[in-house]
Amino acid sequence: MFTGIVEELGEITAVETLGDSCRFRLRGPVVTQGARHGDSIAVNGVCLTVVEHEGDEFTADVMAETLNRSSLGVLAVGSRVNLERPMAVGGRLGGHIVQGHVDGTGEVLERKPSENWELVRISLPADLSRYVVEKGSITVDGISLTVVDAGPDHFTVSLIPTTLALTTLGIKQPGDPVNLEVDVIAKYVERMLGDRATGEGAAR
Length: 204
Fold this sequence. Notes:
There is one protein chain. The chain is of the alpha+beta class. It is built from four helices and twelve strands; from the N terminus they run E-E-E-E-E-H-E-E-E-E-E-E-H-E-H-H. It has helices at about 65-70, 160-165, 185-200, 200-204, and strands at about 10-20, 20-25, 40-45, 45-55, 55-60, 80-85, 105-115, 120-125, 135-140, 145-150, 155-160, 175-180. The strands form two sheets. The chain has a six-stranded antiparallel beta barrel with strand order 1-2-5-4-3-6. Strands 7-8-11-10-9-12 form a six-stranded antiparallel β-barrel. A hairpin with a 2-residue loop joins strand 1 and strand 2 (about 20-25). It is globular and about 45 Å long.
């Protein structure tokens, strides 16, 4: 489990195509501290497994399903990525519960800079709009953010200077894709209420 609090801005140093999958080599001096084979690291909000670790770099395999459902397929050598290790037991939940399971992708539509912050509008797939509410939580490229405004096909988030300086949202431009993960609690509530309405829950 992750919290959506990005630990560092990493970099793709190599991409190896393996048929319908690929292997990334990524640089991240912070997240590689103590990293071992089989550990999980979130890359732009996608939970990936460490295959190899050497120095401040690690490799991770990305399957076709992940490439199809996320924006990782557009990454290339030199791309900057948000990196986060799983939350340690007993650690602080600084953001919200993030699984690292991308629900879909959106697109940066507009940026409105202000003196000390920036408002960013992002497109929202129709099948995810019911999970996004004003002042609720959403994960964008692995960043836990609070929704400012929620529409049927878009939402806005307000970014503080720290987020702009230390994550990919500081450099994303209109037209760039982003990974989206909605609040998992909303999905569980929807499922339970649906079971109650159909009587399926009582039948189990």
